[in-house]
Write a structure and sequence with these properties.
Cytochrome Bc1 Complex, Chain D, domain 2; mainly alpha
């Protein structure tokens, strides 16, 4: 029975590592538009999710939508983003990834 538990434990560890590698690979494959606030946006967003989230939401987002999303990340998920950083990220996302008319 302990051999089965050890095998199961090893399999779970390998699965977790594979999941982390997949997330990291996805982050590396997504190239965000160059511009002021890009590096800050990458640095804060990649902590919790793939960068694919950003361009995939363009059709549904405008400045107000991005502002709501940033606030949700801060309030509900505890994203470590200051007010000044939130404004810089919002300006960047609005300039490069807003697709929906206000």
């Amino acid at each position: 029975m302990s051999a089965i538990r050890a095998s199961l434990g090893s399999a779970l560890v390998l699965l977790a590592l594979a999941s982390l590698a997949t997330v990291a690979a996805g982050a590396e494959s997504t190239e965000l538009a160059d511009g002021p606030g890009r590096d800050l946006t990458i640095g804060r967003c990649i902590v919790c999710h793939s960068l694919d989230y950003i361009p995939s939401n363009v059709p549904a987002m405008n400045r107000a939508g991005w502002q709501k999303s940033i606030q949700k990340m801060r309030d509900k998920f505890g994203a470590p983003i200051t007010d000044e950083e939130a404004k810089e990220i919002l300006d960047y996302l609005d300039a490069h990834y807003s697709g929906k008319a206000a």
